[in-house]
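Incident log, structure service

09:12 report received: a user says their structure output differs between two submissions of the same chain.
09:20 pulled the input from the user's history:
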Amino acid sequence: MEEAIQKKKYKIRDMVRVLAKSIKENKRPTVWAILFIGLESIIECIIPFVMKMLIDTMTSFENVANNKDLMPQVLMYGGILIAMALVSFLCGVLAARFSAKAAVGFGTNLRRDLFSKIMTFSFNNIDKFSVASLVTRLTADVWFIQMAYMMLIRAALRSPMMLIFSIVMASIQSYELSWVFAITIPILAGGLVIIMIAAIPLFNRLFKRYDDLNESVEENVRGIRVVKTFVREEYEKEKMGKASDNLRRGFTKAERIVAANSPIMSFCMYLSMFLIVFFGSMIIRDTALVNDKGELIFTTLGVGDLSTLLTYGAQILMSLMMLSMVLVMFTMSAASMRRTYEVLTEESTIQEIEDRLYEIKDGSISFKDVNFKYSEQAERYALSNINLDIKSGETIGIIGATGSSKSTLVNLVSRFYDTTTGEVLVGGRNVKEYDITALRNNVSMVLQKNVLFSGTIEENLRWGNENATDEEIKEACKIAQADSFVESFPDKYKTMIQQGGTNVSGGQKQRLCIARAILKKPKILILDDSTSAVDTKTDAFIREGLKTTLPNTTKIIIAQRISSVQEADRIIVMNEGQINGIGSHEELMKSNQIYREIYDIQNKIGGAH
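09:34 re-ran on a clean worker, output below:
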């Protein structure tokens, strides 16, 4: 999927337009930075001209012949140069300050906008990009764009202004030598174009390697206990080393190409200096007039002219060098701009209608001729021909083999995915008619992968209801059979949960997640294999607590153990994305072969009792 995304072509204009929206309050420091850089550039372009006047004054034949006191003029020009240097320095400092503030602020806003956009994504969108790729885009890609923005501010006015002004002044000083720049400028410009053409495809591929590296790191850090259990440290280190080495080789190759910019620049600079000095000396020799004493009294190209020409020549090439650095940075950030643009312009596959509903009448659920597949390119449907009616307050068990699409079925109720064909109704209305926030607040779901976040137990539980009282939190924990172990902690509900909930057991984590879902007081409660890590006795207590305290809540329990769904009002047997059977435990034992086989295996071959 990621490779398919990368094949798309985007216009630079469109990418800049979208990314520029994140500048926001940083427009003012951006403008200030450009103004100070412009003033600094003007001063730097004038300084060589003042230097020329100083040199001409000191080397003038008339002044030297008349033994004129030059100190007042020298002091005047020297004072002007010092003042201009100080103003230029101050402008440079202020420009650096404002440009840094603008770039960092832009990066912060861009990162925030990216994160906000990702929060609107459906599961389909997340699957399209992958978690590792989204992490890279939020970190490395934003950093590259931030640096490119800073370079753009610093060079947006400075380089073109100095380039144009220096070319004009160099031509005025000596049109006979201006042809030197007609040779060196195309050489440098041509070299930069070749570098960009060669480097851009490399950087595009490198960020895919960044994604792979991040994915490997994330996978190993999350699964560190499994890695250690199976003593796979050396294998994983070797795999990580290969991923890092691939990234290193790629960046080395790309940076080697980009580094060619510096020797090309040096070659052009020294070539222009040599040509100016060589041909300038010939002009001075050919046009020089001397008096009877052999003293120089006239030449079309004076020492001041030659010195100024060299300075403007250096400024021309330095301006081109600065532009080349901007182009190189943009070359490096082009892939990042594209990848960030993809996320910012991605539309969630879950769209809300304008006149949506905010009230859900009850917890009834209906599936009408539902078919679903995860992508348009998928060859087969994950769910096929699903027709099902669940009454409000009913307890439904769902059982089936791994991969039978049990979780996929309930994901449609909360609109984590939308149906491919058919419709899902909650409270008698199509789920697409509801406000998503209102729907998900009324459909509380404990996912297969239980997640707790860094913070206290109390803070994690308040995800279910941020306004829940202490009594409501304790009551929810009692229903979920979590109160006993929470009370055993020294800090009780103030106990800190480490990232990912690594300091509590799997069963404890599941019970806390169930308590969190109960706090939402939903009309529909879905437990997706969320008691698999607790013993059968605790599982039974949880089910009894839910039945007693949430009698009007529709409860859907997905489980691998028949004991977890045996007492449900009805049990749905799933097989290869279809409903294979519906009924009570007794009815399915008589009529459904799959259910009976699961029961026999679990009760006759050492399964759960």
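09:41 both user submissions now match this output. Likely a transient worker issue. Closing.
09:42 reviewer note: Residues 358 and 438 are 6 Å apart (CA to CA). The radius of gyration is 36 Å.
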